[in-house]
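For the sake of transparency, this paper describes our internal protein records without simplification. The record that follows is passed on verbatim for readers who wish to inspect the format:
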Amino acid sequence: MLTRGLVVLGLVLGVHSAVAQYPAETPAMRAFRLRRECYREGLNEPLAVRGSLQSCNELGMMYFLGRGVAQSDSLAAQAYRRACDGGNAEGCGSLGLMYGHGLGVPQNDSLAAQLDRRACDGGFYTSCIPLGTYYEEGRGVAQSDSLAAQAYRRACDSAVYLGCLRVGVMYLEGRGVPASDTLAAQSFRLACDHREPSGTGPLQDSCEYLDVMQNNRARIRELQRLCERPQEWACRILRTVANRRRAPQ
């Protein structure tokens, strides 16, 4: 299922594995340990001091994937909520993804955007991407291109390179930021330089934008052929750059 696959990608981008610390653990043993660390009570130290918030995040991922435990979106969301309530930005971002896609909790764009804002502001910059999307599309929040661009730029500046692609497009179109081919090209270059070696994945689009902006005729012809099939992503890249080129300088 595509939606679930996108959520898995978002969660995997954020989780910090502790496998190296416990190399002999089976998945079931690991889940048991994480559950004890996440839910232990009666200790004098605050949960954050005990270092258990990250255990809640990892436990949430294991429930979400059904690794070492029976798969349960609702228990995954509970673990993420415990981390978030303790002030862990990553937990808020993971819970935001669950609310955004209605997994284990009722689907709620407004709450998802709030959680993504907490995560982004708290230093979990992966969540700046869905936050920017909510602002750009006006889902769960008042539509704002400027706040969308701000969120994407924050992600880009923090090495979440999908943000570079997103803000690059906004620089091309002059939405939420002043139109600037120079800043668009700089943003696309950052994203392109960090694309998958296989040449697949969303960051590859940034390389295509650069080729069209630099008038790479061979690549433009290939994109035109793809657009005629039709491949909408190729049409979008050609259209976006062409419309920007006609804008007053």
